[in-house]
Write a structure and sequence with these properties.
2 domains; 3-stranded antiparallel β-sheet; 13 helices; mainly alpha; 286 residues
Length: 286
Amino acid sequence: MDELVQEVDEDAVVAQRVSNYTENHPTPDAEENQRSDDLDVRVKSFFSGSCGCVNNCKTLITQEEIFDNVFSLREMTRDEKDVRIMSSFVLVSNDLTFKGGKRKRNNVTYYVKGKTVCKKTFMIYYDVGKHALQAIIKHVSRHGVTTRTHGNTGRKPIHSVTFEDVTNVVNFVRNYAGVYGLPQPAAPRGIDNLPTVFLPASNTKTDIHKEYVASCCGGRALRLTSFKDIWATCCPHIRIAKPREDVCISCERHRQAIMGAVDDEEKLEALEAMERHVQLAKTVCP
């Protein structure tokens, strides 16, 4: 069993964790494209209550009509859907109120099948969310019925976590553990059979994160939350020792010598060496 444990390739295990982490943490753009399909739930919820307006707009359409229209929209490109939505509402052209003040909100009239409806009914029929609809209305008020250009076109979102970001964090944590860590003997029940590496209990992940940021030399550095998440997911075998687990390298060497003794004489010598070390430590740190 011990031979099998020693054959575990730490680089391969960590690399696989990094790959899995990147796949399970898509960029904001990818998350937007992978929205869950909860149409059936939303439609049933819409018809189970009131749409919230005095005209009770939900009586103007059926569930089947909503499903047909939504499925039709989902077969369109983003630009085609935008134009379809833009052509289904009307903005008030006057920017001033009746009292001469500047209009703070866009006055919008929504249409479904040529009939005026409320905003909630319009959103469910055209499969569009609140923020997306606001963005479309804002675009029409400034540029008219034209195709939109996404703000992130040509560049990565500033909050996205890339494969390079994850790799940089993992490499830093592993290098840090190589300098300050105390590796433990691999155990069959360890995480992926990788030996635990204890970092000094006097350290905190916040302190280590500050060193990580400094190591980036002004370049891109992830925030503490992402740093901790990547560490816990990709390098769970590297952890900060609890006070009772915090031992020096000499203690660990003596412990391994005791465990590896082949006869009583060798074990006795190892125990005496351990005892001398402990007594010396007590005089230095009473």
